Amino acid sequence: MGDHPRAAVEREWELFVRETECDPLRHVGSVTAPTPEAAYERATKLFAWYADDVWLCPASETHRYSVHALDADAEPVPLPRGGEPRTYECE
């Protein structure tokens, strides 16, 4: 192993699952794998063996938009303003 971190030689995939058909998708983690099929196999063994639906998205093409800050040093991404403001309501 040595003193250096492993090189990232496989793609990283974000994993979203739905436990039943009535549930919303939720993010449960990420895996690394060379293909979507290999990512699915790894993901189901680790996170989603119980899920009805499994969605895998390439991490490099997954973008986060939120009204919540990631940390104090994070720079917010300016969003275009339309005619209707976006709101978030908790139940």
Provide the fold topology.
Layout: E1 11-18, E2 26-33, H1 36-46, E3 53-58
Antiparallel strand pairs: 1-2, 1-3
Provide the CATH topology of the domain at 11-61.
Answer: Ubiquitin-like (UB roll)
Q: What is the assigned CATH homologous superfamily of the domain at 11-61?
A: Phenylacetic acid degradation B
User: Taking Cα atoms only, what radius of gyration do you get, to the nearest Å?
Assistant: 17 Å
Tally of separate helices: 1
Compute the average pLDDT: 77
DSSP helix fraction: 10-25%
Low-confidence parts: none
Give structural notes.
The protein is an alpha+beta fold and 91 residues long. The chain has a domain of 51 residues: Ubiquitin-like (UB roll), CATH 3.10.20.520. The chain is 12% helix and 24% strand. A 3-stranded antiparallel β-sheet has the order 2-1-3, with helices on one face. The longest helix is centred in the middle third of the chain and has 11 residues. The radius of gyration is 17 Å and the shape is globular.
In short:
The chain has one helix at about 35-45, and strands at about 10-20, 25-35, 55-60. The protein has about 90 residues and is an alpha+beta fold.
